[in-house]
Write a sequence for this structure.
């Protein structure tokens, strides 16, 4: 993974363990609001990223660079060999796609020919095919875009395709680089906090946008055993539901979220009390945290497990959020650590839910991870220690 | 099922009796008066992709005579491009000031699927696929998995819209060419396509009902096959998994786009297919777009329903006497290939 808290999983783990946020002043994104808002930027320029990818193809954009780097890291770390004859899929997700580059050149495209190539890299499928070609020997590709729940659905689809015998393994995840387009979009919705976001705090004002790419390799048991690999964690539950309440707002009672959590739990065979930790969607917007809090209470009653939102580390990375939080969940399972919900001081009066605010060393065997998005898309995943 | 395309597909009685050609180098969808399909308060805010999606979903639901579905799965390559462009131009023109959120809200790729969920009050499974020439194929593949997982009724669809600016830019990038009726698509010697747009939605049910038009038996995508032999080998395996041979396929609809480069593998494949099956082509009437395969699927189902292959689609001289199985071999940019198998039910 690559995000504001580091260029790889190891660096992210260091930041998380040291309660070190990656959100700060905007350095790379060109916007008139540079000095007014904070963001969770990846600390590398496009030139730095091109050097790391070792590809100066002018058609590549920031979205592709970070997707390629994170996916490659996942493949190398997993030890899979895509040339071994097993069927490998790439299931990625993005919301912004190539917009970060399109917005730089759109006006001049009508007069000059220099950057007409952005027409070919603007769409969501571009970064996915770049990943597939970068990894090599990929049999299947597809891309999902369900707003901020996108990568959770990529994880879910990967699991299902393996279960149905359509793939032996899948590189799954999501990517969204910052762009003026998304930044201004969220700004017009007035859900950006000018200071550090405060998930689940009574006085929360909104989210900080971030950028990231996060990928995981999911394998069927047979494929894993055949190559003698070792699993880091198991996906034991997933669910996708729709709030069907409003195009951008979540229902106050969190109906869609409740459905997603309940159905994922049902699939996992776990009772609510068997969940050790919840990695919340927790964006820090008044609406999300209220709605997610209500859903959490609806499912867990007065016995809400330990929980935190890690968005105050990374910012809200949209399509990538669920996959970087899946990776953070795996780090929690591996290290028996719960990473803190930064910037929290006062519980939401109506809910009185108190997240973990300090790094906690405690046995963690099962994790619920939530991701919700515009369009009412709600997805929940459940991970178990391998 | 419901379909909006450059042709009169919105009319339930139309079946290729009359067709229109492109607007020189691109097609525009023939859009209906949406008031019949969408409530006026909703209609006002919707972009064209959303309108095409919601209207065709509505048509499909009415034809199937159902009220609820267990899943809504949408495919779109570029999503709500009109709203994306509107927000982008507003922010560029006004230097990131004085923006309103409406077009940003509508610009997200999952807007069509979520609008349908909102209208139907469907809290169940909702997915949006956005992968080029696999966008619609992914919806069908997902639906077939969901049936195996126990879902009963699923809506799938593919939607694409273009804008005047997008047409201008792609023309500048030399992606289009003027339509030449004297050269059949599969005999083209020059690059260039006729870009198009449209929407098609389908209600799929896990088992045959009185309303069933045709069955979708299987789908497979191929990413960057290297040779036409590769495709043929995969096709034989695909058909074999359905206990069929190529000679069992009464009509094979091939996705020639009239671009000599993109069509290369399909042109090479054509003699092998034509030896065993009757071949048809559809992009001369639909134009080329990411979800043109949704148009092809609608057409294949109609061919089965009517038991007739219209002349305007035919590549082979022969005509089928009976149509049990129709195979679609689609390609997009010579990169995304797919097989879709439909049968009479």
């Amino acid at each position: 993974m690559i995000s504001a808290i580091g260029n790889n999983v190891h660096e992210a783990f260091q930041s998380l363990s040291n309660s070190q946020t990656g959100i700060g002043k905007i350095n790379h994104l060109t916007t008139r609001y540079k000095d007014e808002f904070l963001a969770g930027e990846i600390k590398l320029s496009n030139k730095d990223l091109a050097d790391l990818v070792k590809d100066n193809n002018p058609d590549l954009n920031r979205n592709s660079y970070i997707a390629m780097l994170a996916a490659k890291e996942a493949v190398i770390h997993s030890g899979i060999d895509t040339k071994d004859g097993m069927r490998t899929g790439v299931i990625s997700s993005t919301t912004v796609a190539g917009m970060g580059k399109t917005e730089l050149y759109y006006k001049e495209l009508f007069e000059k020919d220099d950057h007409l190539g952005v027409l070919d890299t603007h769409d969501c499928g571009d970064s996915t095919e770049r990943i597939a070609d970068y990894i090599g020997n990929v049999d299947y590709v597809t891309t999902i875009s369900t707003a901020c729940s996108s990568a959770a659905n990529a994880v879910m689809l990967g699991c299902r395709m393996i279960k149905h015998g359509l793939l032996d393994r899948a590189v799954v995840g999501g990517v969204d680089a910052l762009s003026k387009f998304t930044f201004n979009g969220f700004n017009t919705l007035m859900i950006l906090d000018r200071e550090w976001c405060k998930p689940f705090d009574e006085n929360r004002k909104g989210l900080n946008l971030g950028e990231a790419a996060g990928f995981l390799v999911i394998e069927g048991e047979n494929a894993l055993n055949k190559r003698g690999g070792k699993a880091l964690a198991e996906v034991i539950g997933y669910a996708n539901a729709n709030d069907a309440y409003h195009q951008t707002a979540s229902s106050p009672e969190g109906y869609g979220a409740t459905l997603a959590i309940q159905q994922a739990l049902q699939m996992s065979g776990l009772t609510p009390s068997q969940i050790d930790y919840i990695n919340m969607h927790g964006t820090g917007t008044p609406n999300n945290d209220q709605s997610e809090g209500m859903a959490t209470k609806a499912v867990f009653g007065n016995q809400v497990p330990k929980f935190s939102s890690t968005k105050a580390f990374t910012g809200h990375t949209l399509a990538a959020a669920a996959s970087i939080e899946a990776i953070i969940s795996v780090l929690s399972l591996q290290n028996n650590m719960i990473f803190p919900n930064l910037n929290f001081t006062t519980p939401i009066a109506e809910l009185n839910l108190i997240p973990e605010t300090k790094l906690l060393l405690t046995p963690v065997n099962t994790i619920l991870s939530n991701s919700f998005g515009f369009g009412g898309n709600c997805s929940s995943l459940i991970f178990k220690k391998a | 099922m419901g379909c909006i395309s450059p042709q009169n597909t919105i009319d339930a009685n139309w079946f290729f009796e009359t067709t229109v050609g492109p607007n020189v180098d691109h097609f525009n969808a023939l859009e209906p008066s949406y008031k019949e399909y969408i409530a006026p308060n909703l209609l006002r805010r919707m972009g064209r992709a959303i309108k095409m999606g919601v209207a065709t979903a509505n048509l499909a639901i009415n034809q199937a005579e159902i009220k609820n579905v267990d899943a809504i799965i949408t495919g779109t390559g570029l999503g709500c491009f009109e709203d994306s462009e509107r927000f982008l131009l507003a922010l560029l023109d006004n230097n990131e000031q004085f923006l309103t959120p409406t077009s940003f809200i509508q610009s997200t790729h999952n807007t069509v699927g979520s609008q349908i969920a909102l209208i139907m009050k469907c809290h169940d499974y909702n997915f949006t696929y956005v992968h080029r020439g696999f966008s619609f194929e992914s919806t069908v593949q997902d639906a077939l998995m969901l049936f195996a997982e126990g879902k009963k009724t699923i809506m799938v669809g593919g939607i694409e819209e273009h804008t005047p600016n997008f047409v201008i830019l792609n023309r500048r990038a030399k992606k289009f060419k003027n339509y030449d009726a004297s050269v059949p698509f599969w005999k083209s010697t020059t690059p260039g396509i006729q870009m198009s747009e449209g929407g098609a939605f389908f209600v799929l049910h896990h088992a045959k009902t009185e309303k069933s038009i045709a069955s979708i038996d299987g789908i497979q995508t191929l990413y960057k096959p290297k040779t036409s032999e590769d495709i043929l080998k995969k096709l034989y395996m695909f058909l074999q998994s359905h206990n069929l041979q190529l000679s069992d396929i009464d009509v094979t609809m091939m996705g020639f786009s009239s671009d000599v480069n993109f069509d290369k593998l399909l042109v090479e494949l054509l003699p092998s297919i034509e030896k065993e099956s009757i071949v048809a082509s559809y992009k001369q009437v639909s134009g080329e777009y990411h979800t043109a395969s949704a148009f092809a699927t609608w057409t294949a189902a109609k061919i089965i329903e009517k038991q007739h292959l219209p002349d305007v689609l035919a590549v082979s001289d022969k005509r089928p006497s009976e149509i049990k199985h129709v195979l679609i071999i689609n390609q997009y940019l010579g990169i995304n290939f797919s097989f879709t198998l439909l049968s009479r039910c």
Chain A has two domains: 9-226, 233-385. The longest strand of chain A covers residues 233-242. Chain A has a mean pLDDT of 97. Chain A touches chain B through 63 residues (CB under 8 Å).
